[in-house]
């Protein structure tokens, strides 16, 4: 039977692909696509927020954890919807918005990796992607001397790296753990023995 984390891999894959696309757009066209980037940031945050809500509903964690995760998800959907609907207003605060969301997303990925480490085989990819997101978010947030274009380039590199690790994490999570494989083999063996005995 698939665990919750293994069922959630398509959401992680979608987040990774969108992050890579966003990073490439920001890196290739930093000066002329700010409005487009605002829309992409909004869509990314909506998908990430929906992912949090799905995790909160299907997770087996404590009620407090699920409520907090659900609230973060709703907040992400609302902010993302505003950013996608009104990207011009988002452009002014784009760098700060993306930096803060990098930090939130990174912390969430690290916490998720620690919680489901016994269910998956690729938890280190989630931890690395989360750590990268936090580092890039902190640098972008607390380095006020950077020019806007330089800041966008920095965030774009972080988005690409974060996305790549998220994509790898999705496929790693999709695979069953060794213990799960052994359990399935054991169940099949027991069923075979019962059939033979009958």
Report a brief summary of the structure.
It holds the Pfam family DUF308. The longest helix has 27 residues.
What proportion of the residues is helical, as a percent range? over 70%
| Rg calc | 19 Å
The average pLDDT is: 72
Q: Could you give the order of the helices and strands?
A: HHHHHHHHH
Beta-strand content estimate: under 5%
Number of strands: 0
Poorly predicted residue ranges: none
Which word captures the global form? globular
What do you see in this structure?
InterPro entries: Acid_resist_chaperone_HdeD (IPR052712), DUF308_memb (IPR005325). Residues 179-198 are annotated as: Disordered. This is HdeD family acid-resistance protein. Pfam families: DUF308. It comes from Tessaracoccus flavescens. 83% of the residues lie in helices and 0% in strands. It has 198 residues and is mainly α. The chain has one domain (4-197). Helix 2 runs antiparallel to helix 3 (34-58), helix 3 (34-58) runs parallel beside helix 6 and helix 6 (94-115) runs antiparallel to helix 7 (123-141). The longest helix is centred in the C-terminal third of the chain and has 27 residues, at 148-174.
């Amino acid at each position: 039977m698939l665990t919750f984390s293994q069922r959630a891999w398509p959401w992680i894959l979608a987040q990774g692909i969108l992050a890579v696309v966003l990073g490439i757009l920001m890196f290739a066209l930093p000066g002329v696509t700010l409005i487009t980037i605002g829309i992409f940031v909004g869509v990314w945050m909506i998908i990430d927020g929906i992912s949090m809500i799905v995790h909160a509903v299907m997770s087996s964690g404590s009620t407090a954890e699920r409520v907090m995760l659900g609230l973060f998800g709703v907040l992400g959907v609302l902010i993302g919807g505003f950013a996608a609907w009104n990207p011009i207003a988002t452009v002014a605060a784009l760098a700060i918005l993306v930096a803060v969301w990098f930090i939130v997303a990174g912390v969430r990925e690290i916490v998720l990796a620690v919680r489901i480490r016994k269910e998956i085989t690729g938890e280190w990819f989630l931890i690395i992607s989360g750590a990268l997101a936090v580092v890039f978010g902190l640098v972008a947030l607390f380095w006020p001397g950077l020019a806007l274009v330089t800041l966008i380039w920095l965030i774009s590199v972080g988005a690409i790296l974060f996305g790549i690790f998220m994509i790898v994490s999705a496929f790693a999570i999709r695979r069953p753990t060794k213990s799960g494989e052994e359990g399935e083999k054991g169940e099949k063996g027991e069923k075979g023995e019962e059939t033979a005995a009958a």
